[in-house]
Request: fold
Amino acid sequence: MLFLMVAGNLLLVSDCRAQLSAVDLLTTPRFSFFGQFALSPDNFAIAYTVERTALPGHETGEKDNLVAGSLQKRSELWISDLRTAQSSRVCCQDGSAMVPTWSPDGQRLAFFKTHIFMGPNKSQAEIEGFEKDVSLVVLDRQTGIAREYLKGECHYACSYVGAVWLNDGYSLLVPTRTTGKSDSGAALHPSGTSRQGINIDSNRGSNSTIRIMTSKSLEHSHEGKGSLDRPTSDSPVKSAAWPVMDMRIVDTRTGQSKRVLEKRRIAYSAVSVDRRKFAFADYQRNLPNSLFEVFDIFVIDFETLDVRKVVSDVEIYPGSRQPFAWSADARFLAVSDQFVDSKSGRSKTFSDYLLLDADDGSCRRIAKATSELWFGARTPVWSEDGKYLSFIRDNRLETWEVERLSLVSKISIPNKRLESILALQNEQVPRPAGKTYSIIVTSEDTATVKAGFWEIQPELNRAHKLLEADQHFSFYANFQRLILGGSRALFVWASTGHPDELYEADSNFKQVRSVTNLASGLDGVPMGRSEIVNWKDAEGNALRGVLLLPSEFQRERRYPLIVVVYPFRAMRLKKNGFGLGSYGPSQNWQMFATRGYAVFMPDVPTNPSTKMEDIAKVVSPGVRELIKIGVADPNKIGVIGHSDGGYATLALLVQSSLFRAAIMIDGHGDLVEDHSYDYLRLVIEESWEFKKTPWEDLDLYIRNSPYLYLNRIQTPLLIVHGSADTAVPVHLGAEVFTGLRRLGKEATYVEYDGEEHDPDGWSVSHQLDLSTRMITWFQEHLNVESRDRISRAVVPQTPH
Reply:
């Protein structure tokens, strides 16, 4: 593994704690992807999963003894007692736990357990190994006994569909593989059987390869071939459709199971408050020439096991949040139905809400007359008495009286972007007798980017602020919940210098305390702080962006500057996110702020017809402003971008000589070639708002393709790509390198075998190698002095 050759450059810090290393980021415990939280029925305990990456030596004390092949990743199950503030690990030191859920009486906790950690990039071998190993585990809290069920029968969709308790408190609805069996005796196994841990790097094969080519020489990390010939690899699975699964009900007392659904493609689901009905969205197809997916909505009655289709052809955008909400009496199901406004050039959507009567099968639609620039379903909520249905649409909180389906109010908050609604379990909002009905929403200030909580009173058309702070609501661990009848609230947020943690607040948000302290190991690292910067383009248009200052910033000094570019009009919204990005070392910019760099993330509004030109018109004046005010060293400016940000990086390089070094990760630059690939074609037409095809306006694609202007590039470029990228195929990065090499430009191409589009989901050794290359590339090409020496890795801490 090439990692061993560069490990000595990996942990670069000046005084053991002054700089944030890739190992620090990777070994800091974090909430699992998309926040797997489960609140006990009495609201006194919360279960959640925590991802850990364990390095050799954490148990032996030999922290510098890093071996790439022994990096281990797992997902642990923790429970925090909200009364005593004590936290304890339930599972697993020898495997991974996923998707916890409490029985109705709170006496049992069910979750899935496996010895194969499977992240967002799933190869077929990983899926097959996962399904052979995974089992349903039920832990009895009184006796401490854990039992396993359905060993080798669970579907890998259990990682997002989860198990559902029925109202008897002993039976669970579980996603299983399509075996063709109708009934079975689900094997019971005592939990905790010792097994050999599985190396996450070995999941992609022991011969994992990093291919490297430079414009002057060629090298191959294993076989020494001077070409891009790629061996057959086990590529991550990405399908236009959701996977086929069965659903079975297992009785945890007897171990018997019965199939109740066969060969369904379930993407979203919700159980009714009384746990007698279960709604699910069954994937049917993708809309032609669109990213939108079409679903039929079904409801299972657990008492009769009847399955009934309640509505057809509901459209949901990929990656949406929960689109369902049951009324408390289980009669009505509210469903988000979002569809494209064809008159907008497919850049806007209508967001309707369907009100389905599960008793008589009728459907009423709460339609919207105008479209909005928003993609993705937003979860509706009910008042506990079933009188009102509320949701966020067009940046306003709408509340509707259900019986007459009449509008109560539409409330917006000036200069605030409304994010989500806080509710009790099952999307219910308390409506105490004798009190004014109120709803708490989360918000983000469009000027300061502060995160906040506001109380809105729909019947009085009023809103007032509860709390605002320089914090950020996480996308990956998005969780907000009312508890104890609305007298308390739980939520996850982060800051520029600290990752996601779980917090608890009183109903007025006057008293806020932390429930977890996952990232306590980072407390000794001085982080950079972020601020909003303003500038104008050549036409005098006001522009904004985020500047992350070096951790030891001094106004009288100039600093090397890294520009993180992506063609999105509101990149400033990342201001208060940890490191302006994620936990992954390739996208957490505290890695560079703690090494003495300033990091600039500009807003990049563009017009479809002049996209490439607009990127330079917006970004270059912002860089010059930072030079003017004395922050940036004009001779030490680099630029980096991932995915469409890679496109933006190329767009800058072919139009500007400001940059001394550049990195493109999983990027592209030839729009005609992009258009031949179905996924990118849809991105160009829907997200980028291109209204014509290359056959209708070839010049549009030519003038916006930086690949066709590579001869203008004077900046050394590092090109990085995952060989199994299904969002931006690997040949789109390779062709940029080939063009630059033919033109005699300085470029290096690095390809990581078996890796998908998002580096945060890459194998640990590849993430470490990539972070090292990024640091080294900018240090060498920006002539940044390095006084670094080896640092110890952060020892993972307990949640509290």
Q: What stands out?
A: The two ends are 36 Å apart (CA to CA). The longest strand covers residues 632-642. The chain has eleven helices and 49 strands.
